[in-house]
């Protein structure tokens, strides 16, 4: 018997890709996707990267139980401890295992039929397709539990990746995001292609307009990736390269496999290959061995690397990890202060980066359309706002960049000089209401 369903996910792009795989299998099996408030079945892909993420996963299940007849849960937090979800209620059904196996099991769980092959592409839920090309991790970072729930690194055959890309193009997704737990570890088991070579192959698929990378460890920034960035116009000039710390002793205690000098060396190589590249990063503050001097070295490193945006994570001990034995030595207040310092620095860098775009023309892929405006991202992952009606969802448009906004830039279609950014009463910061706020400069 088919059900109406809605899918949610918590955590990283891999979690999103796994959730979308479950969605596709449910649709193929005849289930019907509806808004969350109307769905009989809620499917939630969970996260356990931190205690907070695990707690939020349980909270999401509790919210779903208020309206759903049944709640399917999967993902990292379930693989780590399925019992914590099963005990939330009889209507909760945990699914443990790999994303492929879980998606297939979910699709068959509420119907007597086998999972059907997709006979025709389903309409894509997003303009950007997250293509999981790799799973698992062989690193042993002291603070991370993910290898325990995802297993060892393994790569997907390039033929399967390209087949998925073709299907996503047919479903209306012109941009592909290569993602994985340790995506830079990618090595095609059939032909030995590295990540950069795979991205160039994806760029050749008819209908693909952009190929983006979700995140890559600095030790995996190989020459083939630099070649893809430099030589293939469809490969986006944006790299998210986790730094975590700018202090060598802290990096060693974290179990990271590089020094800050080696990090700078690869970032320098990236900028030499693609001078206009946009570099973003992850940084952990308040690691047990991070004193004030170590934090100041991290601030200096983020500044020197030209990081325009940092996902700043206050450290919290994760049971089951090596780092948990070190305790939690930095106060919450100090972690909050350090986080604010780094975010403020990155905002300055972001503004500098966006300022260089003023007066230039950028190609924007529109992914949000509202009554008052539409918006999308440039190739280097800068949010750009346009007047209402400038373009439809999923369209690429050439934009003349005119103004700085708090979280991006605003512009007008380059071919339409009479079209200007939204009026002043429409300039509100982006939020759930889809509006944005003008950045007057401070």
Walk me through the topology.
Layout: E1 4-9, H1 13-28, E2 32-33, E3 41-46, H2 51-65, E4 70-75, H3 76-80, H4 83-86, E5 92-94, H5 99-109, E6 128-132, E7 134-135, H6 146-150, E8 154-155, H7 158-170, E9 175-179, H8 195-203, E10 210-213, H9 223-231, E11 238-240, H10 248-254, H11 260-273, E12 278-285, H12 292-304, E13 309-314, H13 332-355, E14 361-369, E15 373-378, E16 383-387, E17 396-405, E18 408-413
Parallel strand pairs: 1-2, 1-3, 3-4, 4-5, 6-9, 9-10, 11-12, 12-13, 16-18
Antiparallel strand pairs: 7-8, 14-15, 14-17, 15-16, 17-18
Give the CATH level 1 class of the largest domain. Alpha Beta
Rg, rounded, reads: 22 Å
Q: Look at the structure and give the mean pLDDT.
A: 88
Biggest β-sheet: strands ordered side by side in the sheet: 2-1-3-4-5
CATH superfamily of the largest domain: tm_1862 like domain
Class of secondary structure makeup: alpha/beta
Proportion in β-strands: 15-25%
Number of strands: 18
Number of helices: 13
How many structural domains in the coordinates?
A: 3
Describe the largest sheet. 5 strands, parallel
Helix content percent band: 25-40%
């Amino acid at each position: 018997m088919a059900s109406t369903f809605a899918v949610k996910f918590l955590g990283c792009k891999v979690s999103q890709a796994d959730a979308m795989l479950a969605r596709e299998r449910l649709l193929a099996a005849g289930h019907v996707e509806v808004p969350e408030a109307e769905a009989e079945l809620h499917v939630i892909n969970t996260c356990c990267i931190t205690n907070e993420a695990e707690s939020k996963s349980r909270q999401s299940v509790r919210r779903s139980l208020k309206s759903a007849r049944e709640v399917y849960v999967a993902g990292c937090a379930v693989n780590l401890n399925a019992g914590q979800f099963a005990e939330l209620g009889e209507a909760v059904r945990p699914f443990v295992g790999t994303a492929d196996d879980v998606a297939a099991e979910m699709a068959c769980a509420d119907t007597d039929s086998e999972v059907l092959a997709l006979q025709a592409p389903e309409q894509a839920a997003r303009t950007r397709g997250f293509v999981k090309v790799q799973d698992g991790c062989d690193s042993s970072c002291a603070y991370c539990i993910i290898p325990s729930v995802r297993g060892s690194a393994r790569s997907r055959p390039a033929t399967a990746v390209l087949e998925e890309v073709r299907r996503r193009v047919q479903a209306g997704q012109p941009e592909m995001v290569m993602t994985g737990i340790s995506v830079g570890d990618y090595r095609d088991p059939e032909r030995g292609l590295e990540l950069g070579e795979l991205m160039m192959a994806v760029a050749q698929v008819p209908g693909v307009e952009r190929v983006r990378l979700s995140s890559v460890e600095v030790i995996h920034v190989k020459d083939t990736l630099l070649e893809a960035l430099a030589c293939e116009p469809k490969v986006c000039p944006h790299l998210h390269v986790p730094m975590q710390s700018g202090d060598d002793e802290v990096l060693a205690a974290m179990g990271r496999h590089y020094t800050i000098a080696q990090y700078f060396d690869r970032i320098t190589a990236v900028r030499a290959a693609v001078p206009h590249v946009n570099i973003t990063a992850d940084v952990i503050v308040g690691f047990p061995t991070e004193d004030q001097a170590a934090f100041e070295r991290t601030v200096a490193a983020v500044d020197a690397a030209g990081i325009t945006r940092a996902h700043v994570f206050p450290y919290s001990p994760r049971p089951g990890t090596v780092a948990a034995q070190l305790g939690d030595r930095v106060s919450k207040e100090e972690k909050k202060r350090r986080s604010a310092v780094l975010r403020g620095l990155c905002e300055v860098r972001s503004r500098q980066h966006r300022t260089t775009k003023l007066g230039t023309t950028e190609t924007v892929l529109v992914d949000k359309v509202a009554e008052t405006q539409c918006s999308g991202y440039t190739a280097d992952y800068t949010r750009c706002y346009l007047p209402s009606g400038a373009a439809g969802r999923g369209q690429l448009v050439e934009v003349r960049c005119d103004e700085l906004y708090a979280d991006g830039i605003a512009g007008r279609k380059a071919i339409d000089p009479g079209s200007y950014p939204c009026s002043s009463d429409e300039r509100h910061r982006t939020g759930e209401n889809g509006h944005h706020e003008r950045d007057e400069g401070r």
